[in-house]
Structures
1.
Amino acid sequence: MGWEKILKGKQGISSSDIKLVNYILRDGEFKTVDRIIDEIYDLIEENNKMRHVEIVRIQGRPTSRKFGANKRGLKVFMANSPDYEVRDTGNKTPTKQPIKEYRYIGE
């Protein structure tokens, strides 16, 4: 089961989705959207294996068990938000779209 299974078809991004993205990007490294979604999927997998009480004991860890944003909505949100820095990797996808990396610079 890949991360495609946890993605939903709606547009936009909820506050719980934003918390997950910020938690993944808290280390200050640049990451592509695919890598961000992969790490969110891994976090959700770990959360699903743990009881809610165990998740709450870990300070700062989001308790979400699903991720409702899609890749396009996530890209638009991070590109328009002042809390994220965007850089072009210089590489392109097979459809000739530039691959961009994002980093959280908010507080």
2.
Amino acid sequence: MFYGIFINMKIIITEKQNKLLRNIISEKSGEDKLDMYLKRRSALIDELIEKNIDEVYEEGTLFDDEFEFADNIINWVVQDMKVPDDIDENEVIDYIKDEYGEYIMSSFESDDDDEDWDDEKEWDDDEWEEIDENWSQKYKRSIDCNNPKGFSQRAHCQGRKKRK
């Protein structure tokens, strides 16, 4: 016979009852299994995220945006973790996105963030040229409304017709 202790009480149960109780507990703690797996590996996840971010910048890999960057980092982390078969990789990916997604995306450096940018240089308003985007009267008169070229000329001709 098996003696179990529950809240300072001794209950005598059979081996069959013990197995049944363990099954019930393990079914309810299925979600806890994932949580325990992830909590035990939080240091590993941190390390793998940093490693993969560093590798991206060392190799000069380019990504279109921070979302593509984060997705690749997270997939590489999960791949490096070697998730066991009894744990769903998608749940691990979702956990990492929730817990580390903002950090990973903030680590993204786009080509727009030029490293050659001279922070010391300040731009004066005088250095910016204003672009006059209006059409000249001469150009407007030269448009053949019987055969307009492109969207802008068609729109111009439609406006001209409405005014007449």
